[in-house]
Amino acid sequence: MPHIKITNILRPRHPFLDAPPAQHLPHPQPQEKHALTSSPASRKLAHARHDYVHPSLIYDPHQMACFIRESCGYILNAYIPPAADPTFLDWLTHTLARVRPELNAILLGLSFYEHMMSSSGMRAHRCAAADSLLAVALLVADKVLRDNPVADRCWAEVAGLLVEVLEQLERAWCAEVGWRVQPWAWAGRLEVWMREWREWVREEQEACVHF
């Protein structure tokens, strides 16, 4: 698949100038607990070997891109015009296929993304845009859950973004939530996203059967 860069399409000159007010968007908060502590279960999840992947955790990159676009429509519709939808889906499919983050990392990243896009501080960052914040949300989640996470430079190359942009947004995001980026801090939203993903897949499968 050719290298895809859509930053200029998704990032207008003032990307958040006409965005919905932050208070009108859900603002899930991480649970109050020290960032450097973790439960045995979360440590096991974060450091588990991934030689075997349960079938329920396997996803198709294009399907996942469609799920993200639909499920985050209440966030993304303000920034991605209908004409840019195919380009956005191509970019996201390409990124997921190349980096291949785990399903749990994607769902954790979506939990981050909700918070980012409802945070006036993150949205006001000079590097913030719908695509760059999504890439950073997935990048941080991948670092939390993968034994050997993909380097920032690789993420930047695949996503068509400057590595400096990703690094600045990553630091800003971690500071925003007090470094509470472990799964236990977002357990409630993770459960919701997992239910939504499974329901979406079920509906897609039923639609194929009835087609």
UniProtKB/TrEMBL annotation:
GO MF, any single term? protein kinase binding
Instruction: Write down the Gene3D superfamilies for this protein, in alphabetical order.
Output: Cyclin-like (1.10.472.10)
Q: Which InterPro entries match?
A: Cyclin_PHO80-like (IPR013922)
* Superkingdom of the source species: Eukaryota
One matching Pfam family is Cyclin
Question: Residues annotated as region Disordered?
Answer: 14-41
| Annotated protein name in UniProt | Uncharacterized protein
